[in-house]
Amino acid sequence: MFSSAWNFIKRHKKKFLFSGAVAGGVYLLGKYAQKKIMELQEKEAMDYIAQARRQFHFESNQRTCNMTVLSMLPPLKEAIVNQLNSESLTSLLKTKPANKLEIWEDLKIISFTRTVVGVYSTCMLVVLLRVQLNIIGGYLYLDNSVGKNGMTPLAPPDIQQQYLSSIQHLLGDGLAELMTLVKKVVQNSLGGMSLKHSMSLLELEQQLSWIRAEVEAGSERSLSWYMLSDDENTLTDQACGLTENDLMTIRLLNETRDMLDSPDFTTVLNACLNRGFSRLLDNLAEFFRPPPGDCASSAASDSLSAVSLPLAKIIPIINGQINTICSETPSHFVQELLLNDQVKEFAANVYETFSTQEELQK
Questions:
Q1: Which of 110, 171, 261, 362 would you label with 80, given CA atoms 20 to 30 Å apart?
Q2: How many CB atoms lie within 10 A of CB 91?
Q3: What does the DSSP 8-state code read for residue 1?
Q4: DSSP secondary structure of 164-176
Q5: d(CA 86, CA 140)
Q6: Which residues share a beta bridge with 200?
Q7: Closest residue by Cα to residue 170 from 80, 276, 84, 277
Q8: Distant-in-sequence, close-in-space partners of 336: CB < 8 Å, separation ≥ 6
Q9: Cα–Cα distance between 11 and 15 in angstroms, integer?
Q10: What is the dihedral of CA 140, 142, 143, 147, to 10 degrees?
Q11: Nearest Cα residue to 207 out of 196, 192, 223, 229
């Protein structure tokens, strides 16, 4: 029996050797494939964890952006009210002065100017901080990632503070220049209009649209200038005498300026301005509703021209809008800007650019 089996093996020796080789090859190939699959699964798991970590960091950064905007609104409002002080004029009017008409004219210009400036500056604050804090956020993500251990931080705390202090331009010289421009346009638009002139909400919307068009078309500078000063260009020319921190701050400011000069930024800012002026009109519409029980007016209550008010009554309404526009308590005005989909998408793109090492090396 054993002899027969041995003879059978000898006769089919080559077949057995070939089958064994094939089986061994298949086994090794299987082990190799298994190893590669495990490596791929591990890489996918690591990529997923990294992506989840970056997404969490991004969302946390957006909450920081929102809180920062809200914290900056009181000083913005204070700067506007201090330079366009209508309260002193209203106090004077209560004393029944001889130049009452002249004071009313000044109040008209200041009230419209500070409301329009309020819309512009709040929209600018929202988008500028979105850019700055997402640049910083992207760098912080890289600084805290495993691959950055032992390397020079891209955004150390002192650099962050120095860089973010540039927001003072929007609250200072930029805001003052914006006020000058808007006041000139408002004067051209409303300067000759009688206080007795009645305006419907539609006519008021047309006036605001004209003012906005003149502000954006009549400025010798782009709107980005009011947000970020060009003074750093002078520092760049003197770079040999600057500290390493100064150079890093200049780099961040130049990267910010590139973002502000991009078509995407212009699109997002315009979207915010459209939403901002639309919300302003929604707020004003509350004062143009027909009196309760007025059947004739109620039938046309949805019309923008259903009710007209004399300009003297519109001025106090316009004057008070700064309290809603620059409110640190999240009002509909501010919320709609913070939750704007185009703002969110733009913020994500900025963060993606500055949190990806490959993008920064291009």
A1: 261
A2: 10
A3: -
A4: HGGGHHHHTHHHH
A5: 43
A6: 308
A7: 80
A8: 275, 276, 279
A9: 9
A10: 160
A11: 192
Q: Report residue 190 as tokens.
A: 């409303």
Q: Report the candidate in 143, 190, 146 with the shortest Cα–Cα distance to residue 49.
A: 146
Average pLDDT on 308-337 reads: 90
**Cα distance between the two ends of the chain:** 77
**Whole-number Å distance between alpha carbons of 351 and 137:** 7
Q: What is the DSSP letter of 221?
A: S
Residue 154 token pair:
């891209």
Query: Rounded to whole angstroms, how far apart are CA atoms 51 and 54?
Result: 5
Query: Per residue in 24-67, pLDDT tens?
Result: 555 566 666 666 566 565 555 555 445 666 677 778 888 989 99
- pLDDT tens readout for residues 225-261: 899 887 655 444 434 456 777 888 888 999 999 999 9
Q: Is 290 left (phi over 0), alpha (psi -120 to 50) or beta?
A: beta
pLDDT at 296 over 60: no
Closest alpha carbon to 114 in 332, 325, 311: 325
- Tokens 């709609």 identify what position? 336
Task: Quote the pLDDT of residue 293.
Answer: 61
User: Residue 294 and residue 192: Cα distance in Å, rounded?
Assistant: 33
Angular region, 84: left φ>0, alpha ψ -120 to 50, beta rest: beta
Contact 343, 349 (CB under 8 A): no
- What pTM was computed for the model? 0.82
The mean-pLDDT minimum among 21-30, 89-98, 171-180 falls in 21-30
Residue entry with tokens 């929202």: 126
CB 156 within 8 A of CB 163: no
Pairwise pLDDT comparison (292 vs 14), residue with the higher score: 292
> Residues 160, 252: contact at Cβ < 8 Å?
no
Which parts of the chain fold into alpha helices (H)? 2-11, 13-83, 87-94, 100-144, 157-164, 168-171, 173-190, 201-218, 232-237, 244-260, 263-285, 295-298, 311-319, 322-325, 332-338, 341-354, 357-360
